[in-house]
Write a structure and sequence with these properties.
It is a single chain. By secondary structure, the chain is of the alpha/beta class. It has six helices and 13 strands. It has two domains: 200 residues, P-loop containing nucleotide triphosphate hydrolases (Rossmann fold, 3-Layer(aba) Sandwich), CATH 3.40.50; 64 residues. The strands form three sheets. The chain has a six-stranded mixed sheet, with helices on both faces. A hairpin with a 5-residue loop joins strand 11 and strand 12.
C-alpha cells in the first residue's frame, strides 16, 4: 500500500490537517504512529483504513482492511452478537462463519455472556471489547487500531497484544496508535511521527534484532511445509515458483530445517541477513 502526496483537510478552504504525505505500508509489518493530540494521527489512520478519502494525492494497493476507531458508537440498535455478525458479513464471511467468529471473540475477551445484550446497555469497557472484536473477527490483511487498548482491562489488553502479534506473523499489516509508549515496545518494524501536518519516520526506532531472509523454491504446486517458525513472513520472490521467507535470526535454523526436511525437500536459492535499521545487510 502506498500513499503519495496525500493531503487531507475538512471543509472547503479549511486548514490542511495532513499535507504531502509519502508513506509505504508493507505487508507483514507492525507500524506505530505517534504525535501530539490534534496532530492528525487519527486522520492518518482513517485515510489508511479508507474511512476518509484524501483531498490531495493518491492511495493505492489498499488490502482487505478492518478499523477500530478511537470512539465506538454504542447507541446502535443491535445486540453484541448481531452487531459482530453483521460486521463479519460486511467483511465477506458467510452468516454461520461470522456468527461463529463473533462468539469466539466475545469469549476470548471474557464477555460471552453479553451476546444478547444491546450495545446501548453495555458498559464502556465492554463496548470497547466489542469494538476491538469487530476489527479482528475477519482476519484482515490490514488492521488499523486507533487507541484500541484504551478502556480495556489488563487481561483484554494481553488478548489484543497477542492478536496483533498473530496477525503480523500471518503476513498482515497492523498500524496502531496508543498513548502508552510501552505498548508493544521493541516489536514495531517502524515508528512514524505526525507533526505540523507531516508524517516522518522516527530515527532509531523499530525492530533492533537482525532477521534472516531465505529465498526458496519448492516442487511444482507444492504448499509450504508445516512447522515453519512462528512469525515467518512470506513474500513472493522474483524467480518464478520461488518464495521469500523472513524470520528472526534465532529462528533461521528452524526455518531451514523445515524446508530441507520436507518431502520432497525445497531448494534453497539464497540466504541473507536483514540487519537492523541503519546497519548494512549481508
Amino acid at each position: 500500500m502506498r500513499l503519495r502526496g496525500v493531503g487531507r483537510r475538512y471543509g472547503l478552504g479549511g486548514p490542511w490537517i495532513l499535507r504531502d504525505v509519502d508513506l509505504d505500508v508493507p505487508a507483514g509489518a507492525l507500524l506505530r504512529v505517534e504525535g501530539a493530540n490534534g496532530s492528525g494521527k487519527s486522520t492518518l489512520l482513517r485515510l489508511l483504513a479508507g474511512v476518509d478519502a484524501p483531498g490531495a494525492g493518491s492511495i493505492t494497493g489498499r488490502p482487505r482492511t478492518a478499523y477500530v476507531p478511537e470512539r465506538f458508537p454504542p447507541a446502535l440498535p443491535f445486540t453484541a452478537l448481531e452487531y459482530l455478525t453483521g460486521l463479519g458479513r460486511v467483511h465477506g464471511l458467510g452468516r454461520a462463519a461470522a456468527r461463529s467468529a463473533a462468539r469466539e471473540w466475545l469469549d476470548r475477551f471474557g464477555i460471552g455472556e453479553h451476546t444478547r445484550t444491546r450495545l446501548s446497555e453495555l458498559s464502556k469497557g465492554t463496548s470497547q471489547k466489542v469494538a476491538v472484536a469487530q476489527g479482528l473477527l475477519s482476519n484482515p490483511e490490514l488492521l488499523v487500531l486507533d487507541e484500541a487498548w484504551t478502556g480495556l482491562d489488563p487481561a483484554s489488553r494481553t488478548v489484543l497484544d497477542d492478536a496483533v502479534t498473530a496477525r503480523v506473523a500471518a503476513g498482515a499489516t497492523v498500524v496502531f496508535v496508543d498513548h502508552d509508549t510501552r505498548r508493544l515496545a521493541g516489536a514495531p518494524d517502524a515508528v512514524f511521527r505526525v507533526a505540523q501536518g507531516r508524517v516522518s519516520p522516527v530515527a532509531g526506532t523499530g525492530r533492533t534484532e537482525p532477521r534472516v531472509r531465505v529465498e526458496a523454491e519448492g516442487p511444482s504446486g507444492a504448499e509450504l511445509p508445516a512447522g515453519l517458525p512462528e512469525g515467518t513472513v512470506r513474500e513472493p520472490a522474483a524467480a518464478p515458483g520461488a518464495v521469500r521467507l523472513t524470520v528472526a535470526a534465532a529462528s533461521s535454523d528452524a526455518l531451514l530445517r523445515a524446508l530441507l526436511t520436507a518431502r520432497p525437500p525445497w531448494h534453497i536459492r539464497a540466504v541473507t541477513t536483514v540487519a537492523p535499521e541503519g546497519e548494512r545487510s549481508r
